[in-house]
Amino acid sequence: MAKERIVVGMSGGVDSAVAALLLKEQGYEVIGLFMKNWEDDDDDEYCSSRQDFLDAASVADVLGIEIEHVNFAADYKDRVFAEFLREYQAGRTPNPDVLCNAEIKFKAFLDHAFALGADRIATGHYARVRERASRVELLKGLDHTKDQSYFLHRLNQAQLGKTLFPVGELKKTEVRRIAAEIGLPNAKKKDSTGICFIGERPFREFLARYLANAPGPIKDDRGRVIGEHVGLSFYTLGQRKGIGIGGLKEVGRKGGSDHDPWFVARKDMAANTLYVVQGHEHPWLQSMTLAADDASWVAGHAPDAAPLAAKTRYRQADAACRFGAAPDGAFELRFEQAQWAVTPGQSAVVYDGEVCLGGGVIASAE
Length: 366
Prior knowledge:
single chain, 366 residues, alpha/beta, 6-stranded antiparallel barrel, 5-stranded parallel beta sheet, 17 strands
């Protein structure tokens, strides 16, 4: 009987390398596939795709598996980057990693893998899948400090049913130990951070290549002009650094601190005005409810309106909430405790304990 063929998305990082290793040890026929998703500045100091491929190829050599290099840059630009720019132009803050998973890694990559005769695909994400009552559930990774179910919440039954997450059952420390033990060349490679096509480069500098500057006033919560912004697209709610009003002190406010930091709190697109407030706990930064649209549910339908939990940003603890479905793929979340800097364009992802149910794009918050 022929071995089951698994095509593993290999990024050059240690997680996908160990995923491939574990699958090979389990007796599968493993083929590596390196995805190139960005090529505008391939020679740039911030773009590491060439080195990442060399690392992935070195791992494949150690494991004794084939690896293919495939270019999805055109798909990425059409399906992910164009939407990324549209959202920023609208004053929202998108999450391209969520869109990349839904449109590239689990669509374009999945299709390509099946063309190679794959039975299933695998990635190095920290998440798990579980079959229950003829459906597939998406679960958090066991290492909750590395759990990536937030970025995978738009995957559907067909995609999850064909996907393995071999490192989802492991802690990151164990993944690195396994890699070092077998002598994988990237065992100590640091984790990539930031958005894949931006890398470690200054974000505003990158965005300025594609979006026009439209300066306007910065106002405080009393409507006083206290500075000038460089364009609303270049700021996000909750932002503290890079606002351009450093050193400004609040004068004459009883009970307030002259030295509390300033945070971006609101963007008035019609008036081209940026509003900032002093203090992390300012009421303008707190929201009890949010409305989201463009919902995608793992089970194929919205959850029941039972007590659930949700995240409004990746690095956040689950927050207890009540769920309410609305027409046309929209929903509302009512939180038990106020959530900080809920940001339109980001993902609101809903959980029932360990199970990621899906989510949508935040449209507004109150």
